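Entry 14. Two folds queued back to back today. First construct below, sequence then structure tokens.
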Amino acid sequence: MKRVFLLGLTVIAATSVVAGCGGSSDETGGGQTSADGSGGNVSLVAYSTPQVVYDQVIPAFNATPEGKGVSVATSFGASGDQSRAVAAGLDADVVSFSVQPDITRLVKAGLVADDWNTGPNKGLVNTSVVSFVVREGNPKNIRTWADLLKPGVEVITPNPFTSGAAKWNMLGAYAYGGKDYVEKLIHDHVKVQPKSGREALQTFTSGKGDVLLSYEYEAITARKKGEKVDYVIPDKTIRIDIDIATTKKAGEPARKFLDFVLGDTAQQYFADWGYRPINPAVLKANQKSFPEPKELKTIDDFGGWEKVDPELFDAKDGIIAKIEEDAGVSTAK
């Protein structure tokens, strides 16, 4: 059965926290916890969306014996921009990005070990699924990928050449219907492609479009912020993998921080914000919140990012790049 999840309308008031926990925003942000550094220092560089989760995770880490006195400096922004910044010299002990190629860049630069994804968590901090965010009550009755091609349906998705989120969205569309489907979707139904996933959400909640292609957790975050939206998980969709790794220069405080992020307490914070936990015990405890789609593909089903990125998104020869160019969309990063 296709599932439509009606999101509650409870507004959760924004709360100020210690410096370094500024809340989610479209702009690159960050700061530092109130810990004095007596337990060491950690620099976390991540994509922007989970900042609201780390606002809770970092103080909780500081409250543990392992995190006592550990100062955690943070930087949040668009995944690709953050990865390129680290490659160019931005200080980082722990990195977390929305697509694997952004960590692969750091492996090639000699900053992250090439076995970063061989541990029990396989380099993941959490997962999600590509979903359809719709207007409250789902007035256009959007339930399947085919419904996105109905006459008059306007779809919003970020530009896949500036947004990691959009690469997953387009891969979901491609997995469903191949090149012809993506071509019809982009040319006939996608009228605007904002730079980032967060900008796309803002565009949708401002009143534009009928459907937003997005991550499941973006819809849940929108609910927690009081937006009147529903969301649909199509029967056929793709699992989104969110990566995390320590850099080669990372010390013991960073490794302890990563262990905490993957542990029960932090993973529950991620679950509360709509991220599917990678921690098996926490995922099991929250199973009702994260129903399994009928057919769930993974990046491995398509040969991994090593095959998918050049085949679909190479600016010169990629299948989706050519579709976007024909539609007048920039493929520049």
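Second construct, same run, same settings:
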Amino acid sequence: MRFLNTIGEPVIQSTIVACLILGQVHASGFALIENGASGQGNAYAGSAAHAIDASTVFFNPAGMMQLEKDHFSIAGHYIKPNSSFTNQGSTAAVILGRTALTGSDDDGGLAAFVPNLYWVKSVDQQTKMGLGVQTLFGLATKYDDAWVGRYHAVETDLKTLNINPSIAFQVNSQMAIGGGIDMVFGDIVFSNAIDFGAICVALGLASATCSPQATDGFADLSGDNLSDPAFGFNFGLQYLITPATNLGVSYRSEIDLEFEGTADFMVPAGATFLTAGGRFSDSAISAGVTLPASLALSVSHTVEKVTYLADVTWTGWSSFDELRIDYANPLQPDSVTTENWNDTLRYSVGFDYQYTDKMVLRSGVALDQTPVPNAERRTARIPGNDRKWVSFGLTYLLDEDLTLDVGYSHLFIKDVQINNEYESSIPTLESTQKGEYKASVDILSAQLNWSY
């Protein structure tokens, strides 16, 4: 009975793993960098050194000391992925070999809106406090229920909320330091199809009502950590090398997320006999993942009306080496999935140009590496690759204390191959999605800033 004791493992394991890989089509891994519209305009170049509004709470809390007044900023980002998948020989396993997977091609891309807000308040001449509310990780995909990769992914939806109180101090005329606490809430919803016909073949019970790729069911999973939020920290410093040149360093710690939720199974009529003894019954689940640390080094240099910006950011994705899942149902044993992601670097350069007394123009470019090591580790949830950013934006002074930021970025993504095998201890469930993804992303951001 080993097959029946382990069939829940690959279903839940693969869907949770893939859910947590959201966002890599537009940011490193499943992280979101869209946490300020002013930075969007120059591809977030110099973000840890160049503080012009309250969004510095996220990018470097030490930058709060650059703000002359108290500040409030609210921003929104519309993210539109454009993708297509071309099947190139995806296969399903059978007892004596492999057969072609049926189903149509699909792109799975969904647009998303990401908001953030920030507040900075002076305590005294040497101290400021700040608060940020933003999304660190997220986005979603949804494929057709009958697409060719349905056993790997159908729906994925990850939302996170980070509440980030911060404080900053002016150490001397050249150096400021700052730090904060991250309190992260997360919510996940995801699903994929199950080939119950392939299970019947594995057990020698195939029939007209239970045959491969003709007797599909579904696993729908959801979870959150709302009753037990995760905590991390961030800190930074800024050092004025010369009156025109500022250096910024910013660090964010790893954060351990622990999700609690449920797995709901839909079993087709032709395979209900497989549920005997409680198999494929709805069950509580839990899963943990370590969100990576990051370190940014930025510089800004002003010459007359132009501020030149540069940034290098390291993200420690190698901490995402496995995903461990626990199941309340004893017929679905605990499991570990190996990921072995790579650390990444993001490089960006840009500038701000004081075009008039009321308008600043900006632009920038960036190269953002993917942590996914190869085609075998790439999944259908969002199959990332290295991204090249081209960004434009402006700030307009609406009145003495009110400014508007607008930023736009287009992300060019190199065509990428996927050759991902659905991991399972049941040989007939080991389908392989093989093909090519083409993708790009458009991001439009706007932000309103009030100083008082």
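Quick look at the second one. Confidence is low (pLDDT under 50) at residues 1-26. The chain has one domain: 2-451.
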